[in-house]
Amino acid sequence: MTTERQSPVIVITGTPGTGKSTHAEILANESPIPLRHINVSEFVKEHGLYEAFDEEWQSYTVDEDRLLDELEPLASAGGIILDWHTCEAFPERWADLVVVLRCDHTQLWERLEKRAYSLKKIQENNEAEIMQVVLEEARSSYAPEIVVELNSGSMEELEANVARIVEWIEAWRKDRGLA
Ligand SMILES: Nc1ncnc2c1ncn2[C@@H]1O[C@H](COP(=O)(O)OP(=O)(O)O)[C@@H](O)[C@H]1O
């Protein structure tokens, strides 16, 4: 039950390149309570939670059942930031806040080019951002009041977003008599 946790589970999601890891790292540093940043893609690799490596897309096919089993105790304990480009796999009860990062598609294109992604992968992600695939996914998976869409186009926006999430953490704790 989410109400038993002393510390929240914050999901930061968005198309690759929107700024999830950057936000999560800064948030973990600035949070008033300890939060562990879990980069789910790295977690999958480190724990071997994949079925195969897809050469065409240059990405791992995640074994979702095993991933969820590994994450379950961490989510139950709380105090984590789940950073992943999708969020619909996570059980609804895990999340206290779902942040969906957005970015202008031309800016996203440049960020992904710098990552040396293939043209096909850049196009696919760019289209997903334009079609707001991750936002729709978040909206159909979680209660509307916990889903927040934030722009991640500049450093100013990044700082404002982190400050806003820190405020949310303080309010979450206060509501539960923890602060
Ligand atoms: N709000 C922002 N303003 C400017 N650059 C950003 C912003 N968010 C992310 N970036 C840059 O975009 C790139 C991708 O960010 P990253 O956090 O790795 O994205 P993701 O984890 O969503 O794939 C990095 O070079 C990062 O510095």
UniProtKB/TrEMBL annotation:
Q: Which of this chain's residues are annotated to bind ATP? A: 17, 19-22, 115
EC number(s) on file: 2.7.4.3
Q: Specify whether DNA-binding is a keyword of the entry.
A: no
**Which key words tag this protein in UniProt?**
ATP-binding, Cytoplasm, Hydrolase, Kinase, Nucleotide-binding, Nucleus, Ribosome biogenesis, rRNA processing, Transferase
An example Gene Ontology CC term for this record: nucleus
Where is the segment annotated NMPbind? 39-62
Cellular localisation: Cytoplasm; Nucleus
Gene Ontology molecular function, alphabetical: AMP kinase activity; ATP binding; ATP hydrolysis activity
Q: Broadest EC class?
A: transferase
What's the catalysed reaction?
ATP + H2O = ADP + phosphate + H(+); AMP + ATP = 2 ADP
**What ranges does the record give for the region LID, renumbered to this chain?**
114-124
Q: Which SUPFAM superfamilies match?
A: P-loop containing nucleoside triphosphate hydrolases
A single GO BP annotation from the record? rRNA processing
What this protein is reported to do is described as:
Broad-specificity nucleoside monophosphate (NMP) kinase that catalyzes the reversible transfer of the terminal phosphate group between nucleoside triphosphates and monophosphates. Has also ATPase activity. Involved in the late cytoplasmic maturation steps of the 40S ribosomal particles, specifically 18S rRNA maturation. While NMP activity is not required for ribosome maturation, ATPase activity is. Associates transiently with small ribosomal subunit protein uS11. ATP hydrolysis breaks the interaction with uS11.
Q: Which family does it belong to?
A: Belongs to the adenylate kinase family. AK6 subfamily.
Oligomeric state and interaction partners are given as: Interacts with small ribosomal subunit protein uS11. Not a structural component of 43S pre-ribosomes, but transiently interacts with them by binding to uS11.
Q: Report what the protein is called.
A: Adenylate kinase isoenzyme 6 homolog
